[in-house]
Design goal:
Layout (H helix, E strand, L loop, with lengths): L1 E4 L2 E5 L6 E6 L22 E8 L2 E7 L4 E10 L2 E10 L5 E3 L5 E3 L9 H7 L1 E6 L5 E6 L6 E8 L4 E4 L11 E4 L3 E3 L4 E11 L2 H10 L6 E2 L3 E3 L4 E4 L5 E4 L2 E4 L4 E4 L5 E8 L4 E9 L3 H12 L14 E2 L4 E2 L17 H10 L6 H18 E2 L2 E2 L17 H15 L2 H16 L9 H10 L3 H20 L14 H18 L2 H14 L18 E4 L4 E4 L5 H16 L2 H15 L11 H8 L21 H4 L4
Parallel strand pairs: 18-24
Antiparallel strand pairs: 1-2, 2-3, 4-5, 5-6, 6-7, 7-16, 8-15, 9-14, 10-11, 11-12, 12-16, 13-14, 17-19, 19-22, 20-21, 20-23, 23-24, 25-26, 27-28, 29-30
Helix pairs in contact: 4-5, 4-6, 6-7, 7-8, 7-9, 8-9, 9-10, 10-11, 10-12, 12-13
Length: 630
Amino acid sequence: MIFSAAGLSLYFNKTTFGVERLSVEGDPETVSFVYGRTFGLPSGNNFLLKSDFATGRFFGEFLYFSDIVCSVTVTEKQGAVSFAYIFKNQGKEAVNLQEGDLGVCTPFFDRFDDPEISLRRRVHAHVRTAGAAYVYCERYSGDLPALGLVFVKGESYSYSLDRGAAKGERGQITLRFPAMTLAPQEEFACEFLLFPCSGREDFFQKADGFGFLTAQAEDLTVFKGEELVFRSSRALKLQTQEGETPFVDGVSRFKPKACGAHVATICSDTQKLQVKYFVLPDDLAENRIKFVTKRQQLSEGRFAGAFAAYDRKSDEVIVRSGVHSPFSLGGFRAAPLLLLLRIAQKKELTEEIKQKISQAIAFYDREIYRGGEVADDVGGKRTRFFKKYYNYPLYAAIKLEEYNYSGELGALMQSAVILSNLFKSGSIYEITPAESVVNALCAAGKTTVAGELTELISAAADKLIASGNKYASFKGLPYGPEIVYGALSTLLDAYFLTGKEYYLLVAKEHLARLETFSFPSTDYASHYIPEIFQEDRGSGLIYDMSPHFTAVHFASVYDKYYRATQCEKYRELSRRIVLTSMSLFDKDGASYRSKSAAAAVNDVPLSSYEEISCGEDVVLYHFDLLFGRK
């Protein structure tokens, strides 16, 4: 059965009453934004009692659990399609419901698979559940039209990601309703609207027109003493743990006093919107150095000198059994060494910390070079295209920063060899320190090596352009932000090192695609900040949007693009992403992610496909951005 209204076509399954196809008028590909046969259904076990597909009004009634009956009414409203739900307790006793016992299935066709298919036929769902909840869907290619979903009645504070068997399946979303108690004959009502839109600004303008509460903030991660500024056309007041602040002419300002993570509630007359904000101490960098050197560096055993994830609850470092390399997922991290090397170039460190740096360098030398060749971090078993080359950019970064720290030319030459091997392997979807390495080689008089490396980088960029910029030349590589920002970085490096303008022109196309993964999320920051983190309150886990250096690479390539074009927008984006990443650390410099790291390595049942990051992997390559550079 087809329900057509407001520029949308919804195909309902007569057996389940779920929407199995949803397309937007004017889409040349006629892409289905939804997947499966459950979109719009109440989540969990339910049984369709009756349905009615009358013209202009589709109606379904479901027997839910604990004597709860759910009715769903689909109608047209001006500019949108309305899904209205009533959950009613028809039993004789009150029903106590936990968060997520009631919910709505909204599976979107959000999936990374074959790159060419993803660009043409898949969508990216940006979800916010913070009271006033929304989902914004756009094509991975960036082509319009897009699709919006906003709740105009009812609240959702979390959602579940019921992922499938493959990493690329991201869209199995269930919007979860808050905990409640329904007395006999009592009802809980909610309603969301679906509507087409022509981009993000149009999405928010239409949402505001439907009465949806929206808000903006320039920065939600600030240092102590800095001011937070919220703007909203509908909000009346802002509530925090420090008190209540009114909105005057659509603006609310206050200076938070306490460091750490906090929650603000923005209130209109009909809806509430929760927003996380973070206040960082001025000495965060110093505290971080102390934390990683005092608590996270192993002093004995075969991993002596390496850094590890840290469990704040047990007050001990975490060592997963069976780890063969510090670069393995869930294992040890090289990022603290990069941090120490970079800081050591800016100021004098104590002899104790210098000794720890030397220990870490010695350890990673053993790991990077085994038998005179760069080590294979996964024993050749990795099935993705990168295989043993996956961590070469990290190896090269370590050796480059070691050279900048010590002045040892051998370390710089090692970095060049590592990068040469990487590009000779055919890998083109990488963010590397190649530009900095070539510049350092030239400054050191190693012009022949610099020229050879430049030719390899240029050849990698040419290969990418020859593929048609559709990321389809390596069909085994799933489409995702990592190959988009990798392609963009390779093109920009080629532009910087050769000066050829066509590399920059092609880079603009990749930049537009990368921005489809970015969205103004008021959970962390607004205005085109990537959805770096997703929290599933049901399981208590924090998921990455993609592999663990996502935040690093977004910041890095935006900063590169700024240097290439002097477009201030991308410098600001890079700065905000860095601040967002810093919100992971508490006043002692410890990572909030240590909780999920501890869960991952202490045999808590997790899907083997989940990429749960450990401890220190969000410390950025771009340390100039992280500490002091705006």
